[in-house]
Every structure is written in structure tokens, then in C-alpha cells.
Amino acid sequence: MSFDIVPTHLAVQAMRDNGYKNTAYALAELMDNSIQAGATLVELLCLEEKSFVHQRHRKQVKKIAVLDNGSGMHQDVLRMALQFGNGTRLDLSMHTGMGKFGMGLPSSSISQCTHVEVWTWQRGIEGAIWTYLDINDIRERSLNEVPEPINRPVPAEWLQMTSSLGQSGTLVVWSQLDRCRWNSARALVENSESLIGRMYRKFLNNRTLQIRFAWMEIDAPDTLDFRFAKPNDPMYLMKNTTCPAPWDVEPMFAIWGNEHEIMVSHPILERRFPVTIRYSVAKRDARLSQAAGNLPHGKHAAKNLGVSIVRAGRELDLEQSFVNPSDVTERWWGVEIEFPPILDEVFGVTNNKQTARYLSEAAKMDLEELTDKNTVPISQIATHLMEDSDHRGPLVELVYTIQRELKKVRKHLDAQTAGIRGRSDHSDGLPIPPKISATEQRAKQVVEERRTAGYVGNSDRDVALPPDEKKERIREDLIAIGVLKEEAESRAEEAVTFNLPVIFAHAPLDTSAFFSLKSVSGTMTITLNTDHPAYYKLLEVLEEDVKSTDVSELRERLIHAGEGLRLLLAAWARYEDELLKDDFRDTVREVRTQWGRMARAFMQDG
Fold it and tell me: Do 383 and 449 fall into the same domain?
């Protein structure tokens, strides 16, 4: 009697329940192997059978295959590839590519079917070798090891579906499908397309890889249909993607800030490795309509909600722990974390490469509150956690950085639509064209009155520029200070079109000032600092959408804004109080008086 620690016939059944979210995730494991083998073309091929059931025709997927033009395998590597937990890249020093765990091919295959076959060739398809795994044979103990590969021709049914066959390559075929999530081949392709296009978007976008989906009925070549995958970019910075028009050709989002690296410690190797973070936010034009979230591009963005976790150029998951599920505007930002496979243990990458569990746990921590409450820097909190062998420790600085930056992004998104809230859409679904705000209209009226009365400002002395040149100067100035390109273009266009002496913009400014000033050819730009507490206290709280807000919440908002205004005045009072030189204090008091007179002119009823 054998007393194996892990009886194979029992273990393999448990391995079938290995946590793949659906068939598309399992197929991605095979595609990872293809990319690791240097493939430039990967094909997902589906054979389906048509039958007549309950008085109607029904299509059922019978076989699924993944075919590539990679380097292929010799027979020892092929047998190793079908072993559970074995592989050629298990050593920590070799964790540089997409593969690692030695589980992908057999584990993903048995999660969907009971029979998997592999053909592979390195010097032309005529020399293809073949072997297989069969769950039922393993259960019955008639199959105890991976069969030795033999020469066997690739079946003609797959050859007639491929678009290009390489001198080397691999074909993996699943049959006896008993856990495939989708019945028909078209449903399988359509549901896999979005996920696979997102996972491999970087490869698809830089054209180092093509992914082709093809399907047909068994023994019916005339039913063959196919399409090539497009990138599905949750950052919405790529062109020619799956996003609906008009944002399929041009990016729907713009880059937010600069990408930056954070060095993350590896406790075992006692070294630090770079992790790259990128941010993006929706362009203003994508949100002009109040119903933008219900338009096709808004619904598309809602399906790509979360922080994209990218390992070796391939996305693992969209992490939801950074998302505020009660806020519908969360779909309008993107964050991407990209790290090398050497940090798999630090991030807690699962063996099916579907998530980074330690990052997810760290993202659930309210680190800003933790640092404020304990008045200690985040680096010290990270050190304490690592000293306690808490696996979240190496990641808390990374998470803290993202949480803080997302606060700025959310403020920007709220400010971005402040000028269009309350508008209604045309009956044809098109947004009403943007108009200048009542504030800017009033400011224009007062400035024109003062100019007529003989008061001249420095902005009035600016050199008069042709409209196009003025527009470009304003746009460049706004972009330079941190305003997003789309908002800068819109504001510059409105300043020139309506001949505005004052315009407002919103950006996180690298200064303690509440706002900045810049003049170009008679137009003064006031850029409000979205990072300043006064912005939230006085502006953001009042400009949030009020349609679905009850009276008590509106009252709280007004109280909040009133407190903000009084605190702003208290800050000025203390500033004057701390001025020690009498002559300078007198000058500041006179400034206060003159500013009060100007405020009366701007704020009294026109």
C-alpha cells in the first residue's frame, strides 16, 4: 500500500478548484506562456457544435485551443510544463519575466476541462511532438506521470482556423469541457475580449503582439469567423482601443502629473526595487454632459474601475480597495502600478496571477488617518510593520502616496465639472456647449466699467496680441502651472471668444498660496489651488451637485462654507497682527481697505 503525502488522484481533484475567476483568466495563463516563449501572434480558437434542443438550435463550445508562434519546446521541457509546480523559472534569481510558478498550463487547463493535449514544434510543424493529461485517467490511477511525447500531426481542424503558422510554436487544446463559463463560441470570445485586451494592452499597443480570436462550427469551415483584439486601456491614454466613439480613436483621459518611482524593500533579498506609478484623469470634453456616466464611454469606464496592477507588462487585476464605491465619479480617473516579478512575494501575487493580495490588504488601511493620529512619518510606520514581519510593511509608503494623490485627483474632477453642473442636456443627447460662468460675466462688466472710468491695470498694459497668439499664450501658461491640457485649451478658447478680462482655472499648485495670478494681453488668469484647505472649505463644498441633496445636507454645506470664510478672515487678521514694523503694517491695512472697495464694486448688485 502506498502512503503518498499527497495522493495524486485526490490532489488533482482539489487543484481543479484553484480559484480562476472565469475561463478568460484561465486562458490568459496559456497566453502568458506564449509571450514568455517569444510569440508575436497568439490565437484563441474555438470549435462549437450545433444541436437542436427543446425546439430550438443551440451552439455549444466543444473544444478550445491556444496556438502561438513562439519558440516551442523540446520533449523534456514539454513534460515539465505539464507537471504541477514544476517549470524552468522557479528560482528567485530568474523572476524577471511573465512566468514563474510552474502551475500555469496544467492548473488553468484542468480548471476548465478534463482532457488537455499539447503539440509543440521547433523546426517546422512536420516535426510536432504531442502529449496530454487526462483527469479521469489520473483519478483511476492509470496515469501516474506525464506521458512521454511522441510525434503526432497537428489536427487539420486547427490548421484551417489559423491565420499564420510559424516554424516553431505550441498548440494547447482543451476538450471534454465541463467548467467553461460560456456556452457558445461567440459568447466566449466576446466575454474574453475585454479582459484579455486589458491584460495585454501594453503588448498590443506597442505592436509586439497580436491576439486573434477565431471560431467556427465543427466540420464547417464556411462558418469561420474571427477578429483581432484591441487594447482595453483602463488609463484611457492609448489610441485605437475598445472604448466607444468618439474615444475609440483618441485617448479619453489625460496624463496627471509625472510618473514616478517608489523604491520598495524586498525583505528576503534585503534590496530595494523600483515600482512605477502613473495617473490619468478624464478630459473635460468627456464629462461635459451631466449624463456622461450613462453614455457608452462612461459605461465603458465604469467597467474599468480601480487601480491597475501590472506585473512584467501584463495586468494582474484592477484593485478595488482604492475606490470609493459610493462616488460615481470614480470612473473618471486611472492609476497604474507597475512592478517587476522579483517583487511577487512582496506584493503577494497569487499562483494564478489574478491578484496581489498583500497590496490589497495594505490599500484597505487608512494610512493618512494613521499618520495624523500618531504624528509619525509614514516611513516610520512602514519600518515598525516590517519589524513585526507584517507583510503590508513594504507597501504602505506606496499605498500612502497613491491615497494622497487620489485626493488631489478627486478635487480636480469635482472642480472640472463645476461650471457645467445644473445644466440640462439637449433632447438629442448632446451636451449644451460650455458657457462662461456668472462670476466671469460679472467680473467682465465691472472691469469694463472701471476701464471706462479711467482705471488702468497692469494686465491692460500688456502688449495686444492677435487672438490665436493670445489663445496659445494663455494655454501654455495654464499647462505650465499644472492645469490639464484640455481644461487649458477650453479656458483659453473662452477667454478669447468672449474677450474676458478674468478667467478661472483649477490646479494643485506647488505653493501655500490659495491662488496664482498671470496676465496675458488684457486677460488675468486666476488659478485656484485645489490643494489649499480653503478650496475645499469655500468652493468645492458649494459646487458639488445639489440635485439629489436634501435640505439638511445643504444647510451643513452652507455652515461649512461660512466657517471657511471666517477662518480665512482670521488668517488675514493674524497675519496683520504678527507684522512687527509699523510702517509695513500700515501699508497692509491700506491694502485691506483698498481691496474692500474693489470687492464692493465686484460684489454689489450689477
Answer: no
Compute the residue count for the chain: 606
pLDDT digits 0-9 by tens, 24-48? 999 999 999 999 999 999 999 999 9
- pLDDT at residue number 538: 72
pLDDT (mean) for 470-499: 86
pLDDT band at 430 (very low <50, low <70, confident <90, very high): very low
In this prediction, what percent of the chain has a pLDDT beyond 90? 47
* Residue from 510, 476, 446 nearest 257 by CA: 510
**Residues 544-570: what's their mean pLDDT?**
66
Is residue 422 included in any domain, yes or no?
A: no
Flag whether 143 is in a domain: yes
Beta bridge partners of 51: 58
Output the CA–CA distances (angstroms, integers) from residue 516 to 126, 489, 525, in the order listed.
72, 18, 8
What is the domain extent for residue 464? 438-603
Within this chain, do residues 412 and 453 fall inside the same structural domain, yes or no?
no
485 and 552 in a common domain: yes
Distance CA 590, CA 599 (A): 14
Give the other-Cβ count within 10 Å of 553's Cβ: 12
Give residue 52's pLDDT.
Answer: 67
* Alpha-carbon span 120 to 149, nearest angstrom: 10
Q: Where are the alpha helices (DSSP H) in 56-205?
A: 75-81, 104-110, 135-139, 156-159, 185-199, 201-205
CA distances from 174 to 111, 183, 562, 564 (A): 10, 14, 67, 65
- Mean pLDDT across the chain: 85
Per-residue model confidence as pLDDT tens digits over 394-403: 999 999 999 9
Task: Let me know whether 204 and 146 are in one domain.
Answer: yes
Q: Do the bridges between strand 56-68 and strand 220-228 make them parallel or antiparallel, or are there none, so unpaired?
A: unpaired
User: Which domain CATH number covers 206?
Assistant: 3.30.565.10
Answer yes or no: are the C-beta atoms of 18 and 105 closer than 8 Å.
Answer: no
Burial (Cβ within 10 Å: 0-12, 13-18, ≥19) of residue 594:
exposed
Strands of 468-578 (E only): list them: 502-507, 515-520, 523-529
- ∠ CA 429-433-434, nearest 5°, is 130
Same structural domain, 444 and 358: no
Angle, helices 396-416/378-387, rounded to nearest 10 degrees: 140
297 & 185 share domain: no
Task: Give a yes or no: residue 248 inside a domain.
Answer: no
Same domain, 123 and 270: no
Q: What is the pTM of this model?
A: 0.70
DSSP string covering 352-367: TSS-BHHHHHHHTS-H
How many domains does one find in the chain? 3
Q: How far is CA 456 from CA 193, 465, 559, in A?
A: 62, 18, 38
pLDDT in tens, 230-268: 999 999 999 999 999 999 999 999 999 888 899 999 988
Ramachandran category for residue 499: left, alpha or beta (phi over 0 → left; psi -120 to 50 → alpha): left
Is residue 221's pLDDT more than 50?
yes
376 and 322 housed in the same domain: yes
Q: 355 or 506, which is more confident?
A: 355
Residue 236 is assigned to a structural domain of this protein: no
Residue of higher predicted confidence among 90 and 468? 468
